[in-house]
Amino acid sequence: MTAIPEFEFRTSSACKYNNNDPRCVEVATNVPGKVAVRSSVNGGTVEFSAEEWNDFLSGAKLGEFDVAA
């Protein structure tokens, strides 16, 4: 039986982690075919397929998710 690897989360270098306000998004890409994203505040985790994650990143780079002021 093959062991299922655990996600190894990392925080973006753009995150300004502050012990008084620890709000950062953490991402794990070490499990083949999967990407996990979690909140550093509550530890809630969401999993995506690698294809879903790539589609999201492409949309984000094109401004698809920009919030209008």
Automatic annotation (TrEMBL):
It comes from Streptomyces albus. InterPro entries: DUF397. Pfam families: DUF397. This is DUF397 domain-containing protein.
